[in-house]
TrEMBL record:
Residues 1-17 form the signal peptide. GO terms for biological process: blood coagulation. It comes from Pleuronectes platessa (European plaice). It is found in: Secreted. This is Fibrinogen C-terminal domain-containing protein. SMART domains: FBG (SM00186). Gene3D superfamilies: Gamma Fibrinogen, chain A, domain 1 (3.90.215.10), Gamma-fibrinogen Carboxyl Terminal Fragment, domain 2 (4.10.530.10). Its main location: secreted. Keywords: Coiled coil, Disulfide bond, Glycoprotein, Secreted, Signal.
Length: 384
């Protein structure tokens, strides 16, 4: 529309009859004049003649209106462009956020799946630790692990360690034990093992008498079963204690004779000569620390010799079992050994999950922090 108006304004205005007449008169009067003759000769256009009709200017108000309309049009187009850009930007941001959310959801799902697999693997590792040896008892009977080894050595090239069934002499029933057939020639009957602190050794007398734990892992065989094994006719047993510290240093203590009295005498322990690198903690350094010949004690059966109490490191102790967190051992005024020890509090023990005591095993005068221990017995040759 505005283009049409501009074109109309630019066209020459039609002349009225009066203008025509005036123009004619003007031209006629000028024809006879000298100026017209000179203009014709020179080929010049008279001032105010045709040139005035060919030149036309746009009024200022229309120019302003045109510029204003053009500015409004440009602003409108710019607004539309900004709105379109804003919508595109918001859509792009929304798409990016949705894509990131999908990626986070996938990552969260993968993390959850990985945690599930880790838990499953942890359970499998725990189970495999229990099943690292044959869990099902091997159907090869003997009086003890030494007897089983002697009877199988000529038949089986390599006798595996694992759970076997033994039937000691002069007993009415058989029971399962763990036999170590690889350690120092084999034939060892394991009577105690501590490895990871997962088995609770805070037990009453009945548990220590009958035994508890997992034979393939942490366990206490039981005082009654130990008594049956070591008190067979014409047998003599060696006791071996294998220790491992928190920094994986190993040591041992061995006694060339080991026996127990009956339950009526509270399974008092008897030990032979000591050999090893961990020190003789069973006997200690002084007579009052000697645990050889001591009866077994538990939290509910006190035979520790503290009557009515003992003074240890300027502390009054009424029960060694209570002092050692209700665990059982051959205490004699507490002494320097308790391989069944248990920490009173995990935080107080700085994360240590076992509190195994063998005080004579030291480094630079400081007792080793013991991570694991295995107590085992094996037949040795007799002079008979």
């Amino acid at each position: 529309m505005w283009t049409t108006i501009v074109l109309l304004l630019l066209l020459p205005h039609p002349l009225s009859s009066t203008d025509t007449e005036n123009s004619t008169g003007f031209n006629q009067s000028e024809i006879g004049s000298e100026d017209f003759s000179d203009a014709s000769v020179k080929g010049q256009t008279p001032v105010g003649g045709v040139k005035g009709r060919d030149t036309c200017s746009i009024p200022c108000d229309i120019t302003v209106k045109l510029l204003r309309d053009e500015k409004h049009s440009v602003c409108g187009q710019l607004q539309q462009s900004l709105l379109s850009f804003g919508r595109s930007t918001r859509k792009l941001i929304r798409d990016v956020m949705e894509e990131q959310q999908r990626a986070l959801d996938i990552l969260s799902s993968q993390v959850t799946e990985l945690m599930t697999k880790v838990q499953t693997l942890s359970f499998e590792v725990q189970r495999s630790n229990s099943e690292i040896y044959s869990v099902r008892p091997v159907q090869s009977h003997g009086r003890d692990c030494s007897d089983i080894k002697d009877s199988l050595v000529s038949v089986v090239p390599k006798i595996p360690s694992g759970i076997y069934i033994v039937h000691p002499e002069n007993t009415d029933s058989s029971f399962e034990v763990f036999c170590e057939m690889d350690y120092m020639g084999g034939g060892w009957t394991v009577v105690q093992r501590r490895t990871d602190g997962l088995t609770d050794f805070k037990r009453p007398w009945a548990d220590y008498a009958d035994g508890f734990g997992n034979l393939a892992g942490e366990h206490w065989l039981g005082l009654k079963k130990m008594f049956y094994i070591v008190n067979q006719k014409e047998t003599r047993f060696q006791l071996h204690v294998a220790l491992t510290s928190q920094d994986d240093v190993t040591s041992y203590a061995s006694y060339d004779d080991f026996s127990l009295d009956s339950e009526t005498q509270f399974f008092s322990v008897h030990l032979g000569r000591y050999a090893g690198s961990a020190g003789d903690a069973f006997r200690g350094y002084e007579q009052e620390q000697n645990q050889d010949t001591a009866p077994f004690s538990a939290s509910d059966v006190d035979n520790d010799g503290c009557n009515p109490f003992c003074s240890i490191d300027n502390r009054t102790v009424e029960s060694c079992s209570t002092q050692h967190n209700h665990t059982g051992w051959w205490f004699n005024q507490c002494g320097l050994a308790n391989l069944n020890g248990s920490p009173e509090d995990a935080e107080q023990s700085q994360g240590q999950r076992t509190n195994i005591l063998w005080d004579t095993w030291r480094q630079n005068g400081v007792p080793h922090t013991i991570k694991s221990v295995t107590i085992k017995i094996r037949r040795i040759a007799t002079n008979n």
